[in-house]
Amino acid sequence: MQDNLHNIRRSFDKGSLSKKTVDPNPIQQFRSWFYEAKDSEMVEDVNAMTLCTLGLDGIPSGRVVLLKAYDEYGFYFYTNYNSDKGRAIEAYDKVSLSFFWPSLERQIIIKGKASKTSMETSKRYFDSRPLGSRLGAILSNQSQVIDNRKILDDKLKELEKVYEKNDPELPDYWGGYLVSPTSIEFWQGRPNRLHDRIRYSLDDLDWRIERLAP
Ligand SMILES: Cc1cc2nc3c(=O)[nH]c(=O)nc-3n(C[C@H](O)[C@H](O)[C@H](O)COP(=O)(O)O)c2cc1C
Fold this sequence. Notes:
26% of the residues lie in helices and 34% in strands. The chain is of the alpha+beta class. It has a domain at 26-129 and 169-212: Electron Transport, Fmn-binding Protein, Chain A (Pnp Oxidase, Chain A, Roll).
């Protein structure tokens, strides 16, 4: 029997967006929205974003990762390079990142090219993580099939002993990606589904700003 969800809907009316009011630079615009979300206290996991890659099987694949930094070059996240997403990016480096902050009725969609961060950048972030997270990153063959949970718990116990006195090194299969944006769309919910969509697209070295139909 079909579970009909037709009546789940709400009206959006918390804000508006126009070409005149946005910042000419999309990273500045991102910064302003990001801090509004961070400071609003209504947005949980403000830096959680959906990373979409084109899978090796040709099927697009999305999963949540955490944004760990951003600057004029783009957006940074960290992962296992041998994971499904790592292998997908190795084969095809175009990706998208998207944020949805329901309480602000806002969505941001970033498209661009992913490249590995330098070892120094990866190491700096790896070393800043709590010991448990560093050991977790080392011991997990992310995205591989495993027989049971115990394998992970046993490996963790083993590694906790090994690294009782000395710090673990950054493994070569783990690190960051920088997503250098070629387009960034800011979406603000509006009444009657006539939402505001402002898209920045990289045109040579300049950002072209356009309004899109909702
Ligand atoms: C809130 C949240 C944050 C996450 N952050 C990360 C992250 O920063 N890096 C990461 O590799 N996986 C993160 N994950 C797990 C991924 O969603 C995913 O399960 C994992 O990376 C394996 O994906 P893959 O098999 O497609 O490579 C997070 C999941 C959630 C729900």
